[in-house]
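ok, trying the design again with the full structure, not the truncated one.
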């Protein structure tokens, strides 16, 4: 299979994980990188031996680059993705898909009109941990899924992140920052959501940065920092989710799926591995038991969604971390905020297919049989 050349736009903190993993897929070749800050472009190119550090315009004009990986901040996701699609490039972006629903729909329409693939993070649901959970559910181990719970609670990012301001601006907050990991995992496991309701608040109107770079800077909070939601899945399952930047600690699980025959503990959806644990109703001891992982990619394989897009381009199949999936999650996140503001249920206008499970027996660096 011929390699597909990739260009990376955005050389910030998360880019290192992509630059590390993308070349480990035989189908991918990282040809170029670009960032608005030229020093950052050069630094990443030198560190990861990227052949061509360049400007964004030069990268988009390169006819050999077929996939653009968009690692910019959320406010720039739509602009960069649109420019990439207009340049004839398949486009994969970091989460969230876009900030506004209308922006996301525009990208889907543009990709469809140009015959291009669009997709986005998170791709952690393709890791060994959640793929194992998917297999257990699809094989009927817990019976019919009835309910799920998801929890992401922390104190926010201003104590450790060097530039935490955007986490408290539109497009940020715990739902838009961390919600994509949890919601993408749940849609992968249980299918799309039909309607939601929820409550949300801005608990503290201002945050004070205590990380070294901007110590003492005060940040106004524009988005809810504690969001609680209820989801009704099209399959009939009912789910709850809490995302918060307002808590000092928690002992709650990441995700649990409850079925007619048993319950399943899903590992951290912001990671790729386990543990996966199951408790079956017929188990007389009533014990949670560890399940060996059925799939590979249990280490940090950020960028697996890009590789899956490359395989999709080569074979003509749908990409798993698709634009439709990313947009449904975006629509879902907005719906929680909308429901909280209006005090009512909000019906989702979007839907998507459950992405296909990865084949069993793969080797790392491989995605198709």
């Amino acid at each position: 299979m011929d390699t597909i050349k990739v260009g990376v736009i955005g050389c910030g903190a998360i880019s290192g994980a992509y630059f590390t993993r993308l070349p480990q897929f035989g189908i991918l070749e990282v040809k170029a990188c670009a960032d608005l800050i030229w020093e950052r472009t050069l630094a990443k190119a030198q560190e990861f031996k990227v052949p061509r550090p360049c400007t964004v315009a030069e990268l988009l004009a390169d006819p050999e680059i077929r996939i653009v990986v968009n690692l910019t901040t959320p406010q720039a996701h739509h602009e960069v993705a649109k420019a990439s699609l207009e340049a004839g490039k398949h486009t994969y972006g970091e989460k969230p898909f876009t900030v506004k629903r209308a922006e996301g729909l525009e990208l889907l329409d543009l990709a469809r009109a140009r015959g291009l693939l669009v997709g986005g993070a998170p791709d952690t649901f393709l890791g060994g941990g959640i793929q194992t959970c998917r297999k257990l559910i699809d094989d009927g181990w817990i019976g019919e899924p009835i309910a799920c719970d998801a929890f992401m609670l922390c104190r926010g990012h201003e104590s450790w992140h060097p530039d935490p301001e955007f986490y408290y601006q539109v497009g940020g907050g715990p739902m838009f920052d961390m919600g994509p990991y949890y919601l993408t995992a749940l849609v992968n496991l249980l299918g799309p959501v039909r309607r939601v309701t929820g409550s949300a608040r801005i608990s503290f109107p201002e945050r004070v940065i205590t990380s070294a770079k901007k110590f003492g800077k005060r940040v106004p909070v524009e988005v809810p920092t504690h969001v609680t939601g209820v989801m009704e899945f099209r399959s009939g399952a009912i789910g709850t989710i809490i995302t918060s930047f307002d808590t000092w600690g928690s002992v709650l699980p990441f995700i649990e799926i409850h079925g007619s025959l048993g319950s399943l503990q899903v590992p951290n959806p912001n990671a790729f591995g386990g543990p996966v644990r199951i408790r079956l109703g017929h188990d007389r001891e009533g014990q949670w038991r560890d399940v060996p992982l059925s799939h590979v990619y249990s280490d940090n394989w950020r960028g697996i969604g890009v590789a899956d897009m490359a395989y999709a381009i080569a074979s003509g199949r749908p990409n798993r971390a698709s634009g439709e999936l990313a947009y449904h999650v975006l629509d879902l996140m907005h719906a929680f905020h909308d429901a909280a503001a209006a005090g009512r249920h909000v019906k989702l206008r979007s839907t998507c297919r459950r992405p296909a499970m990865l084949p069993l027996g793969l080797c790392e660096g491989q995605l198709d049989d």
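Keeping the full-length input from now on. The domain at 127-291 is CATH 3.30.360.10 (Dihydrodipicolinate Reductase; domain 2).
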